Amino acid sequence: MAILVTGGAGYIGSHTCVELLENGHDVIVIDNLSNSSLDVLDRIHTLTNKKVTFYKGDLLDRTMLETIFTGHSIESVIHFAGLKAVGESVEQPNRYYYTNLMSTLHLLQVMDKYNVHKLVFSSSATVYGTGNLMPLNEEARLSAVNPYGRTKLMIEEMLADHYRSNQAWRFIVLRYFNPIGAHPSGMIGEDPAGRPNNLMPYVTQVAVGKLPELNIFGDDYSTHDGTGVRDYIHVVDLALGHIQALKKTAEPGYHTYNLGTGQGYSVLDVIHTFEEVNGNPVPYRVQGRRSGDAAVCYADVEKAKKELNWEATRGLQDMCRDAWRWQVQNPNGYQKARSFQSN
Length: 343
Ligand code: NAD
Ligand code: UD1
Hints:
There is one protein chain. 39% of the residues lie in helices and 18% in strands. The protein is α/β, with parallel strands linked by helices. The strands form 4 sheets. It has a 7-stranded parallel β-sheet with strand order 3-2-1-4-5-6-11, sandwiched between helices. A 3-stranded mixed β-sheet has the order 12-9-14. It is globular. Uridine-diphosphate-N-acetylglucosamine is lined by residues 86, 124, 126, 149, 178, 197-199, 202, 214-217, 228, 230, 267, 290, 292-293.
Protein backbone atom coordinates (compact mmCIF):
# COMPACT_ATOMS: atom_id res chain seq x y z
CA MET A 1 0.00 0.00 0.00
CA ALA A 2 1.35 3.41 -0.95
CA ILE A 3 0.93 7.01 0.20
CA LEU A 4 -0.10 9.41 -2.56
CA VAL A 5 1.51 12.82 -2.06
CA THR A 6 -0.03 15.63 -4.13
CA GLY A 7 2.41 18.50 -4.63
CA GLY A 8 5.21 16.20 -3.46
CA ALA A 9 7.85 18.01 -5.53
CA GLY A 10 7.21 21.27 -3.65
CA TYR A 11 8.94 22.70 -0.60
CA ILE A 12 7.08 20.95 2.21
CA GLY A 13 6.05 17.97 0.07
CA SER A 14 9.65 17.08 -0.84
CA HIS A 15 10.76 17.11 2.80
CA THR A 16 7.76 14.97 3.70
CA CYS A 17 8.59 12.48 0.92
CA VAL A 18 12.06 12.04 2.43
CA GLU A 19 10.61 11.28 5.87
CA LEU A 20 7.98 8.94 4.41
CA LEU A 21 10.64 6.97 2.51
CA GLU A 22 12.87 6.88 5.60
CA ASN A 23 9.91 5.48 7.52
CA GLY A 24 9.49 2.64 5.03
CA HIS A 25 6.48 3.95 3.08
CA ASP A 26 6.01 3.53 -0.66
CA VAL A 27 5.43 6.99 -2.09
CA ILE A 28 3.62 8.14 -5.22
CA VAL A 29 3.84 11.81 -6.15
CA ILE A 30 1.56 13.78 -8.44
CA ASP A 31 2.77 17.28 -9.22
CA ASN A 32 2.32 19.54 -12.24
CA LEU A 33 5.71 21.18 -11.50
CA SER A 34 4.10 24.62 -11.73
CA ASN A 35 6.12 25.69 -8.69
CA SER A 36 8.77 23.00 -8.48
CA SER A 37 11.35 21.09 -10.44
CA LEU A 38 11.94 17.54 -11.56
CA ASP A 39 15.42 17.81 -10.01
CA VAL A 40 13.82 17.41 -6.59
CA LEU A 41 13.08 13.76 -7.31
CA ASP A 42 16.73 12.95 -8.02
CA ARG A 43 17.73 14.72 -4.85
CA ILE A 44 15.20 12.72 -2.83
CA HIS A 45 16.62 9.56 -4.39
CA THR A 46 20.20 10.55 -3.56
CA LEU A 47 19.22 11.35 0.02
CA THR A 48 17.22 8.22 0.77
CA ASN A 49 18.46 5.73 -1.81
CA LYS A 50 14.79 5.12 -2.52
CA LYS A 51 12.62 6.26 -5.38
CA VAL A 52 9.18 7.80 -5.45
CA THR A 53 6.83 6.89 -8.28
CA PHE A 54 6.26 10.18 -10.06
CA TYR A 55 3.35 11.40 -12.19
CA LYS A 56 3.69 14.77 -13.83
CA GLY A 57 0.08 15.80 -13.80
CA ASP A 58 -2.51 18.28 -12.67
CA LEU A 59 -5.14 17.59 -10.04
CA LEU A 60 -7.54 19.48 -12.27
CA ASP A 61 -7.18 16.51 -14.64
CA ARG A 62 -9.53 13.96 -13.10
CA THR A 63 -8.62 11.30 -15.65
CA MET A 64 -4.99 11.48 -14.57
CA LEU A 65 -6.03 10.94 -10.96
CA GLU A 66 -8.15 7.95 -11.94
CA THR A 67 -5.15 6.45 -13.75
CA ILE A 68 -3.11 6.67 -10.56
CA PHE A 69 -5.83 5.18 -8.38
CA THR A 70 -6.47 2.29 -10.80
CA GLY A 71 -2.76 1.58 -11.19
CA HIS A 72 -1.81 1.51 -7.51
CA SER A 73 -3.03 0.32 -4.18
CA ILE A 74 -3.24 3.60 -2.24
CA GLU A 75 -3.72 3.68 1.50
CA SER A 76 -3.73 7.41 2.25
CA VAL A 77 -3.26 10.77 0.60
CA ILE A 78 -1.29 13.79 1.81
CA HIS A 79 -2.60 16.79 -0.08
CA PHE A 80 -0.06 19.62 -0.48
CA ALA A 81 -0.78 20.66 -4.07
CA GLY A 82 -2.18 24.13 -4.52
CA LEU A 83 -1.41 27.76 -5.12
CA LYS A 84 -0.08 29.61 -2.09
CA ALA A 85 0.96 33.19 -2.85
CA VAL A 86 -1.20 35.63 -0.91
CA GLY A 87 -0.60 38.68 -3.15
CA GLU A 88 -1.21 36.68 -6.32
CA SER A 89 -4.46 35.36 -4.86
CA VAL A 90 -5.71 38.92 -4.44
CA GLU A 91 -4.87 39.67 -8.09
CA GLN A 92 -6.13 36.38 -9.51
CA PRO A 93 -8.92 35.17 -7.21
CA ASN A 94 -10.60 33.03 -9.87
CA ARG A 95 -7.42 31.07 -10.51
CA TYR A 96 -6.94 30.49 -6.78
CA TYR A 97 -10.51 29.43 -6.07
CA TYR A 98 -10.63 27.27 -9.19
CA THR A 99 -7.29 25.53 -8.64
CA ASN A 100 -7.39 25.00 -4.90
CA LEU A 101 -11.06 24.08 -4.61
CA MET A 102 -11.50 22.05 -7.81
CA SER A 103 -8.28 20.09 -7.21
CA THR A 104 -9.49 19.09 -3.78
CA LEU A 105 -12.99 18.22 -5.03
CA HIS A 106 -11.50 15.99 -7.74
CA LEU A 107 -9.29 14.32 -5.21
CA LEU A 108 -12.19 13.65 -2.84
CA GLN A 109 -14.36 12.27 -5.68
CA VAL A 110 -11.68 9.90 -6.91
CA MET A 111 -10.66 8.83 -3.40
CA ASP A 112 -14.27 7.99 -2.57
CA LYS A 113 -14.71 6.09 -5.83
CA TYR A 114 -11.65 3.94 -5.07
CA ASN A 115 -12.57 3.57 -1.42
CA VAL A 116 -9.56 5.48 -0.07
CA HIS A 117 -10.71 7.59 2.85
CA LYS A 118 -7.59 8.76 4.67
CA LEU A 119 -6.49 12.31 3.91
CA VAL A 120 -3.99 14.67 5.53
CA PHE A 121 -4.52 18.25 4.36
CA SER A 122 -2.15 21.26 4.37
CA SER A 123 -4.01 24.13 5.93
CA SER A 124 -2.48 27.27 7.34
CA ALA A 125 -2.47 29.49 10.41
CA THR A 126 -3.86 32.10 8.05
CA VAL A 127 -7.34 30.64 8.74
CA TYR A 128 -7.24 32.28 12.19
CA GLY A 129 -7.44 35.71 10.62
CA THR A 130 -7.00 38.57 13.04
CA GLY A 131 -8.32 39.51 16.47
CA ASN A 132 -7.66 36.28 18.41
CA LEU A 133 -5.72 36.04 21.64
CA MET A 134 -2.29 34.35 21.52
CA PRO A 135 -1.33 31.56 21.60
CA LEU A 136 -3.82 30.36 19.01
CA ASN A 137 -5.47 27.09 19.83
CA GLU A 138 -7.53 25.07 17.37
CA GLU A 139 -10.78 26.46 18.79
CA ALA A 140 -9.86 30.08 18.00
CA ARG A 141 -12.25 32.05 15.79
CA LEU A 142 -11.71 31.43 12.08
CA SER A 143 -11.70 34.11 9.42
CA ALA A 144 -9.60 34.78 6.38
CA VAL A 145 -8.50 38.10 4.96
CA ASN A 146 -7.51 37.16 1.40
CA PRO A 147 -8.60 34.67 -1.30
CA TYR A 148 -5.74 32.27 -0.53
CA GLY A 149 -6.79 32.08 3.11
CA ARG A 150 -10.43 31.70 2.13
CA THR A 151 -9.59 28.69 -0.07
CA LYS A 152 -7.99 27.04 2.97
CA LEU A 153 -11.01 27.82 5.11
CA MET A 154 -13.41 26.57 2.44
CA ILE A 155 -11.46 23.35 1.98
CA GLU A 156 -11.53 22.75 5.74
CA GLU A 157 -15.30 23.16 5.60
CA MET A 158 -15.57 20.89 2.56
CA LEU A 159 -13.68 18.16 4.40
CA ALA A 160 -15.81 18.55 7.52
CA ASP A 161 -18.97 18.23 5.39
CA HIS A 162 -17.65 15.08 3.74
CA TYR A 163 -17.01 13.60 7.17
CA ARG A 164 -20.51 14.54 8.34
CA SER A 165 -21.99 12.76 5.32
CA ASN A 166 -19.80 9.66 5.54
CA GLN A 167 -18.02 8.71 8.73
CA ALA A 168 -15.67 6.35 6.92
CA TRP A 169 -13.55 9.42 6.13
CA ARG A 170 -10.44 10.11 8.23
CA PHE A 171 -9.36 13.71 7.83
CA ILE A 172 -6.39 15.30 9.52
CA VAL A 173 -6.18 19.03 8.89
CA LEU A 174 -2.77 20.49 9.72
CA ARG A 175 -2.54 24.23 10.22
CA TYR A 176 1.07 25.17 9.57
CA PHE A 177 2.56 28.23 11.19
CA ASN A 178 5.70 29.57 9.42
CA PRO A 179 7.73 26.77 7.83
CA ILE A 180 11.36 27.74 7.17
CA GLY A 181 14.74 26.03 6.88
CA ALA A 182 15.74 23.11 4.75
CA HIS A 183 16.92 19.52 4.96
CA PRO A 184 20.22 19.49 6.93
CA SER A 185 21.98 17.92 3.92
CA GLY A 186 21.40 21.14 1.97
CA MET A 187 20.07 19.05 -0.91
CA ILE A 188 16.43 20.09 -0.80
CA GLY A 189 14.94 23.37 0.32
CA GLU A 190 12.65 26.23 -0.55
CA ASP A 191 13.04 27.57 -4.08
CA PRO A 192 10.71 30.53 -4.56
CA ALA A 193 10.19 31.76 -8.10
CA GLY A 194 11.23 35.38 -8.50
CA ARG A 195 11.62 37.74 -5.57
CA PRO A 196 10.66 35.98 -2.33
CA ASN A 197 7.59 37.16 -0.40
CA ASN A 198 8.40 35.38 2.83
CA LEU A 199 11.02 36.40 5.35
CA MET A 200 13.58 33.57 5.42
CA PRO A 201 14.16 33.14 1.68
CA TYR A 202 14.52 36.92 1.49
CA VAL A 203 17.07 36.88 4.32
CA THR A 204 19.17 34.15 2.67
CA GLN A 205 19.12 35.92 -0.70
CA VAL A 206 20.29 39.15 0.94
CA ALA A 207 23.01 37.29 2.87
CA VAL A 208 24.27 35.64 -0.32
CA GLY A 209 24.28 39.01 -2.14
CA LYS A 210 21.48 38.31 -4.63
CA LEU A 211 19.36 41.07 -3.09
CA PRO A 212 20.82 44.28 -1.65
CA GLU A 213 18.95 44.51 1.65
CA LEU A 214 15.99 43.22 3.58
CA ASN A 215 12.96 45.46 4.01
CA ILE A 216 11.58 45.09 7.51
CA PHE A 217 7.86 45.66 7.30
CA GLY A 218 7.24 47.83 10.36
CA ASP A 219 9.08 48.36 13.65
CA ASP A 220 6.22 49.99 15.54
CA TYR A 221 4.21 46.92 16.55
CA SER A 222 3.58 46.23 20.23
CA THR A 223 6.21 43.50 20.39
CA HIS A 224 9.47 43.32 22.36
CA ASP A 225 11.43 45.12 19.58
CA GLY A 226 8.61 46.57 17.48
CA THR A 227 8.92 44.06 14.60
CA GLY A 228 6.37 41.36 13.76
CA VAL A 229 6.45 38.10 15.71
CA ARG A 230 5.82 34.67 14.14
CA ASP A 231 6.01 31.01 15.08
CA TYR A 232 8.74 29.69 12.74
CA ILE A 233 8.92 25.93 12.40
CA HIS A 234 11.69 23.87 10.82
CA VAL A 235 10.43 22.18 7.67
CA VAL A 236 11.81 18.81 8.82
CA ASP A 237 9.81 19.03 12.06
CA LEU A 238 6.79 19.88 9.94
CA ALA A 239 7.43 16.89 7.67
CA LEU A 240 7.64 14.64 10.73
CA GLY A 241 4.28 16.01 11.85
CA HIS A 242 2.81 14.42 8.71
CA ILE A 243 4.17 11.01 9.65
CA GLN A 244 2.39 11.28 12.98
CA ALA A 245 -0.76 12.59 11.31
CA LEU A 246 -0.85 9.54 9.04
CA LYS A 247 -0.86 7.32 12.12
CA LYS A 248 -3.85 9.22 13.43
CA THR A 249 -5.84 8.28 10.29
CA ALA A 250 -6.02 4.73 11.70
CA GLU A 251 -9.33 5.82 13.27
CA PRO A 252 -12.23 7.59 11.55
CA GLY A 253 -12.70 11.25 12.38
CA TYR A 254 -12.09 14.86 11.43
CA HIS A 255 -9.28 16.41 13.43
CA THR A 256 -7.47 19.72 13.23
CA TYR A 257 -3.96 20.40 14.59
CA ASN A 258 -1.64 23.36 14.79
CA LEU A 259 1.91 22.58 13.68
CA GLY A 260 4.22 25.19 15.15
CA THR A 261 6.76 25.40 17.97
CA GLY A 262 4.65 27.51 20.30
CA GLN A 263 7.46 30.06 20.42
CA GLY A 264 7.29 33.47 18.75
CA TYR A 265 10.31 35.27 17.27
CA SER A 266 10.48 38.78 15.83
CA VAL A 267 11.95 39.76 12.47
CA LEU A 268 14.97 41.21 14.30
CA ASP A 269 15.35 37.98 16.34
CA VAL A 270 15.52 36.06 13.04
CA ILE A 271 18.07 38.46 11.54
CA HIS A 272 20.28 38.44 14.62
CA THR A 273 20.15 34.66 15.03
CA PHE A 274 20.92 34.21 11.34
CA GLU A 275 23.93 36.55 11.56
CA GLU A 276 25.19 34.89 14.73
CA VAL A 277 24.86 31.32 13.49
CA ASN A 278 26.14 31.83 9.96
CA GLY A 279 28.53 34.75 10.41
CA ASN A 280 27.01 36.66 7.49
CA PRO A 281 25.57 40.14 7.80
CA VAL A 282 22.00 40.80 6.73
CA PRO A 283 21.71 44.50 5.84
CA TYR A 284 18.20 45.81 6.37
CA ARG A 285 16.07 48.92 6.14
CA VAL A 286 12.89 49.55 8.09
CA GLN A 287 9.86 50.24 5.90
CA GLY A 288 6.19 50.76 6.63
CA ARG A 289 3.96 47.90 7.69
CA ARG A 290 2.87 45.40 5.02
CA SER A 291 -0.88 45.48 4.56
CA GLY A 292 -2.64 42.45 6.03
CA ASP A 293 0.16 41.60 8.48
CA ALA A 294 -0.61 40.74 12.08
CA ALA A 295 1.70 41.99 14.84
CA VAL A 296 2.00 38.61 16.55
CA CYS A 297 1.06 35.06 15.62
CA TYR A 298 2.08 31.89 17.44
CA ALA A 299 0.55 28.53 18.16
CA ASP A 300 -0.73 26.63 21.12
CA VAL A 301 0.76 23.23 20.26
CA GLU A 302 -0.63 21.17 23.14
CA LYS A 303 -3.22 19.34 21.04
CA ALA A 304 -0.66 18.02 18.55
CA LYS A 305 1.63 17.03 21.42
CA LYS A 306 -1.11 15.11 23.15
CA GLU A 307 -2.99 13.54 20.26
CA LEU A 308 -0.32 13.17 17.56
CA ASN A 309 2.54 12.52 19.96
CA TRP A 310 4.48 15.10 17.97
CA GLU A 311 6.41 18.18 18.89
CA ALA A 312 8.97 20.34 17.12
CA THR A 313 12.51 19.78 18.37
CA ARG A 314 14.54 22.05 16.08
CA GLY A 315 15.18 25.63 17.18
CA LEU A 316 15.64 28.92 15.37
CA GLN A 317 19.40 28.36 15.15
CA ASP A 318 18.86 25.07 13.29
CA MET A 319 16.37 26.77 10.98
CA CYS A 320 18.83 29.58 10.15
CA ARG A 321 21.78 27.23 9.72
CA ASP A 322 19.91 24.83 7.44
CA ALA A 323 18.29 27.59 5.37
CA TRP A 324 21.74 29.06 4.80
CA ARG A 325 23.34 25.71 3.88
CA TRP A 326 20.63 25.18 1.25
CA GLN A 327 21.15 28.70 -0.14
CA VAL A 328 24.94 28.39 -0.34
CA GLN A 329 24.88 24.95 -1.93
CA ASN A 330 22.16 25.97 -4.40
CA PRO A 331 22.59 29.67 -5.16
CA ASN A 332 20.08 29.38 -7.99
CA GLY A 333 17.82 26.82 -6.35
CA TYR A 334 16.76 24.08 -8.73
CA GLN A 335 17.04 26.59 -11.58
CA LYS A 336 18.72 24.22 -14.01
CA ALA A 337 15.56 22.19 -14.32
CA ARG A 338 12.95 24.91 -13.92
CA SER A 339 10.63 25.45 -16.81
CA PHE A 340 10.69 29.21 -16.25
CA GLN A 341 13.31 31.74 -15.27
CA SER A 342 13.37 33.04 -11.71
CA ASN A 343 14.39 36.65 -10.96
P1 NAD B 1 4.95 24.61 -3.03
O1 NAD B 1 4.43 25.55 -4.03
O2 NAD B 1 6.43 24.49 -2.87
O3 NAD B 1 4.37 23.15 -3.29
C1 NAD B 1 3.11 22.93 -3.89
C2 NAD B 1 3.33 21.95 -5.04
O4 NAD B 1 2.06 21.70 -5.66
C3 NAD B 1 4.27 22.50 -6.12
O5 NAD B 1 5.26 21.53 -6.39
C4 NAD B 1 3.37 22.71 -7.33
O6 NAD B 1 4.05 22.48 -8.54
C5 NAD B 1 2.25 21.72 -7.06
N1 NAD B 1 0.95 22.07 -7.63
C6 NAD B 1 0.31 23.26 -7.56
N2 NAD B 1 -0.89 23.18 -8.16
C7 NAD B 1 -1.02 21.91 -8.61
C8 NAD B 1 -2.04 21.21 -9.31
N3 NAD B 1 -3.17 21.81 -9.69
N4 NAD B 1 -1.84 19.90 -9.63
C9 NAD B 1 -0.68 19.28 -9.27
N5 NAD B 1 0.31 19.90 -8.62
C10 NAD B 1 0.15 21.19 -8.28
O7 NAD B 1 4.29 24.98 -1.63
P2 NAD B 1 4.64 24.50 -0.17
O8 NAD B 1 5.25 25.63 0.55
O9 NAD B 1 5.35 23.20 -0.19
O10 NAD B 1 3.18 24.33 0.42
C11 NAD B 1 2.50 23.09 0.40
C12 NAD B 1 1.10 23.30 0.93
O11 NAD B 1 1.18 23.83 2.25
C13 NAD B 1 0.27 24.28 0.12
O12 NAD B 1 -1.06 23.79 0.08
C14 NAD B 1 0.34 25.55 0.94
O13 NAD B 1 -0.81 26.36 0.74
C15 NAD B 1 0.40 25.01 2.35
N6 NAD B 1 1.04 25.94 3.29
C16 NAD B 1 2.31 26.39 3.03
C17 NAD B 1 2.89 27.29 3.91
C18 NAD B 1 4.28 27.83 3.63
O14 NAD B 1 4.67 28.79 4.27
N7 NAD B 1 5.07 27.24 2.75
C19 NAD B 1 2.20 27.72 5.05
C20 NAD B 1 0.92 27.21 5.29
C21 NAD B 1 0.35 26.32 4.40
C1 UD1 C 1 2.66 35.05 5.04
C2 UD1 C 1 1.26 35.18 4.50
C3 UD1 C 1 0.42 34.05 5.08
C4 UD1 C 1 1.05 32.70 4.76
C5 UD1 C 1 2.49 32.69 5.29
C6 UD1 C 1 3.22 31.43 4.98
C7 UD1 C 1 0.89 37.58 4.07
C8 UD1 C 1 0.19 38.81 4.53
N1 UD1 C 1 0.72 36.48 4.87
O1 UD1 C 1 2.58 35.12 6.45
O2 UD1 C 1 -0.88 34.10 4.58
O3 UD1 C 1 0.30 31.64 5.34
O4 UD1 C 1 3.21 33.78 4.72
O5 UD1 C 1 3.43 31.32 3.60
O6 UD1 C 1 1.54 37.55 3.04
N2 UD1 C 1 8.73 40.35 6.75
C9 UD1 C 1 9.58 41.43 6.58
N3 UD1 C 1 10.20 41.57 5.37
C10 UD1 C 1 10.04 40.69 4.34
C11 UD1 C 1 9.17 39.58 4.52
C12 UD1 C 1 8.52 39.46 5.73
O7 UD1 C 1 9.76 42.24 7.48
O8 UD1 C 1 10.62 40.89 3.26
C13 UD1 C 1 8.07 40.16 8.06
C14 UD1 C 1 6.55 40.18 7.99
O9 UD1 C 1 6.06 41.47 8.14
C15 UD1 C 1 6.21 39.24 9.18
C16 UD1 C 1 7.38 38.24 9.21
O10 UD1 C 1 8.45 38.88 8.52
O11 UD1 C 1 6.23 39.95 10.38
C17 UD1 C 1 7.05 36.93 8.51
O12 UD1 C 1 6.59 37.19 7.20
P1 UD1 C 1 6.27 36.03 6.16
O13 UD1 C 1 7.42 35.10 6.08
O14 UD1 C 1 5.83 36.67 4.89
O15 UD1 C 1 5.08 35.22 6.83
P2 UD1 C 1 3.65 35.75 7.37
O16 UD1 C 1 3.53 37.20 7.27
O17 UD1 C 1 3.45 35.14 8.69
